[in-house]
Amino acid sequence: MDIAKPLDMISAENPDAESPKEKEPVKILLAEDDTEDQELFIDALDEAQIASEVTTVENGQELLDTLRDESQSDPDIIFIDVNMPVKGGKKALEEIKKDDYLRGIPTVMLSTWDHPADIEDTFAKGADLYVQKPNSFNAFVLLLKKVFLLHWAKALLGPVRNLFFVSEKNVGKG
Question: Which residue positions does the secretion signal occupy (predicted)?
Fold first, then answer.
């Protein structure tokens, strides 16, 4: 018997065993100016059973201020609404990805629109995913499950163009 068995092998043999990673909630920073959308996001995370700690900010400037605040711990992932007041999501994304300290934090863009120019622009600026906000709560739950599946699957790959845009229309696909 091999005593130096990797943790993932033990977990694979016993799927009911929790790995240490599963016990820790995902630290999410959500930049969204609409409080109803903030609540919908948090409720959808709960329904999707994604253990998380969500911090919300209402514009791109608050997002950057929070990320640069040394008293705050770094998030595991950032969700950024494209259209926000004060400083928009694309401008905030650009500043995050130009910052040597912040650029490695995965970023997911959120928008009600699926304009090809916005999608291409955020891909070029370094976002990890672009998610079109769905029209229903159940679709939002499915989308968040897909986002987290894609995020963790892509952790070793970096942004992949054919996996970059996620919407209600393609949530059931590979």
Answer: none
Q: Is 90 exposed, middle or buried (0-12, 13-18, 19+ CB in 10 A)?
A: buried
Q: What is the mean pLDDT of residues 75-80?
A: 92
Q: What is the CATH number of the domain that holds 71?
A: 3.40.50.2300
pLDDT at 173 over 70: no
Among 68-72, 95-99, 116-120, top mean pLDDT goes to 95-99
Q: What residue numbers bound the domain in which 74 lies? A: 25-166
Sheet holding 129-132, edge to edge: 52-57, 26-31, 77-81, 107-111, 129-132, 165-166
Give the dihedral sign, CA 67/70/71/74.
positive
* Coil/strand/helix, residue 40: helix
Report if residue 11 sits inside a domain.
Answer: no
Residue environment code for 121-131, b if the CB has 16+ CB neighbours within 10 A, otherwise e: bbbebebbbbb
Token pair of 104 as six digits:
């490695």
What does the alpha-carbon distance between residue 124 and residue 77 come to, in Å, rounded to a whole number? Answer: 18
Q: What is the mean pLDDT of residues 100-106?
A: 89
Give the whole-angstrom CA distance, residue 140 versus residue 108.
Answer: 14
Rounded CA separation 152/154 (Å): 5
